[in-house]
Amino acid sequence: MPIRSKPMTLDLRAALCQTPLLDGVPSDLLDRLIDQGTVRQVRAGEQLFAASDMSNTVFFILAGSLRIYSRDETSPVPLADLGAGDVVGELAAIDGGGRTGSATALQESAVLVCPPRCLHRPAKPRPAGSPSVVAAVFADHPRCR
């Protein structure tokens, strides 16, 4: 009989507050990410996405760890190991291109999946001049300067 693990229990706000990229983001925009995002459990060894996938979904790592890698002709080439507080998929969200690497869970992990509607479309009308989530979150990203 297979052993099933219990789903992780997370305090989303506390987990997202570990994310340096979200430092200084207004609480209403953080609430929008929580309200419109979806928590996804990723099993150890499960691929979250593959290089060249066309997607502009951003993943905020809430728990666990992911390995980002590319491939050469024969094998995977590790690029980075990321954990809680890190973000993946932001390059595709910024430039609309394909994924530049693949991501696989090194251990049981949880991510907040934020599709484009989460980042661009307000959950409720916002006052003129207030930033979108994407503008607030990625304002200091090197590819946005």
Shape: globular
CATH class: Mainly Beta
Radius of gyration over C-alpha positions, nearest whole angstrom: 16 Å
Return the average pLDDT rounded to an integer: 79
Number of helical elements? 5
- Distance, first to last CA: 53 Å
Fraction in helix: 10-25%
Order of helices and strands: HHEEEEEEHEEHH
Task: Provide the number of structural domains.
Answer: 1
**How many distinct beta strands?**
8
CATH superfamily: Jelly Rolls
| CATH T-level fold name | Jelly Rolls
Biggest sheet statistics: 4 strands, antiparallel
Describe this protein's structure:
Pfam families: cNMP_binding. This is Cyclic nucleotide-binding domain-containing protein. InterPro entries: cNMP-bd_dom, cNMP-bd_dom_sf, RmlC-like_jellyroll. By secondary structure, the protein is of the alpha+beta class. It has one domain: Jelly Rolls. It contains five helices and eight strands. The strands form two sheets. A four-stranded antiparallel β-sheet has the order 1-8-3-6. A four-stranded antiparallel β-sheet has the order 2-7-4-5, with no helix packed on it. It is globular and about 45 Å long. The N terminus and C terminus are likely disordered.
Give me the secondary-structure topology:
Blueprint: H1 12-16, H2 27-36, E1 38-42, E2 47-49, E3 58-63, E4 65-71, E5 76-83, E6 87-88, H3 90-95, E7 102-105, E8 109-114, H4 116-120, H5 133-138
Antiparallel strand pairs: 1-8, 2-7, 3-6, 3-8, 4-5, 4-7
